[in-house]
Amino acid sequence: MKKIRKQTLSLLGMIFFVCMVIILICSSMLSPYPTYTSKGISSDSSKPIEEEKKQVVVIDAGHGGYDEGSMGLDGTLEKNITLSIATKVQKILEQNQIEVVMTRTSDNVSWTSDNAQDLQARLDLAANVKAQAFVSIHCNFSEVESEWVSGSEIYVNFKQPDSVKLAERINEQLASLSSQLKNREMKTESLHVIQYNTMPSIIVETGFLSNEHDLTFLKSENGQQLLAEAIAKGTLEYIANLK
Ligand SMILES: [Zn+2]
How many domains, the chain? Predict the structure, then answer.
């Protein structure tokens, strides 16, 4: 009896030892962050895709609040057209997994009625969110020969290579609309948001409110959608080439 009991005890001891070894091996194989292989989760990293940082783009609807911008032949206000196009751009970019920060989403603005402070507040917002691009949307106005002066154009600081790349991408898209809206290419001027920015920044002038043809296009749902698609597509191409 004693012998059998001794054998049983040593057998149980061995089983216990083997179990402990298996537990130790298994626990050493497990990383503190399990690697998921299910759809939507990175298979080669412990970090789920959902947590990866999205690219941030600031879309700036020009003017707003106290500042109406230009006024069209029929009283159309620039600030309303820019907001409408900007909102459409936001929607397309968000559908393409871009994090969009809007400088304003309505006619209520948070900054003071000082023009320089107004523009700086928009740039500060973009700097705070560490945006990869700042796209400001405006409408143009010409005091002279409004009948002949028409089309889209982009203002950019040619001393900033990344801003130029962003401008080129968007301008290519705007140029593809030339059968409906003239393209006036890229230009430079000493404008606050393209001179004092800390990230690639451009101003898209979407057309002339002083020109009858452009005004009709800018007011139309189709025209605004085409402009928004061109701006969004150019921005997405620019962002895609950053990676
Ligand atoms: Zn403007």
Answer: 2
Domain membership of residue 72 as a residue range: 53-240
- For residues 220 and 124, membership in a common domain is answered with yes
CA of 63 to the centre of ligand 1 (A): 6
Calculate ∠ Cα 95-194-196, nearest 5°: 115
Q: pTM of the full predicted structure?
A: 0.78
Helix (H, G, I), strand (E, B) or coil at 231: helix
pLDDT in tens, 47-82: 555 556 789 999 999 999 999 999 998 999 999 999
Q: Are 51 and 36 in contact (CB under 8 A)?
A: no
User: CA–CA separation, 83 vs 31, rounded Å?
Assistant: 49
> Is the same domain home to 37 and 152?
no
Indicate if 143 and 110 belong to the same structural domain. Answer: yes
* Rg for the chain, CA atoms, rounded: 29
In a shared domain, residues 59 and 33: no
Cα(52) to ligand 1 centroid in Å equals 35
CA of 240 to the centre of ligand 1 (A): 28
On whether both 36 and 58 belong to a single domain, the answer is: no
Domain CATH code at residue 140: 3.40.630.40
Q: pLDDT tens across 90-120, in order?
A: 999 999 999 999 999 999 988 888 888 899 9
Report CA(62)–ligand 1 centroid distance (Å).
6
178 Cα–ligand 1 center, Å: 21
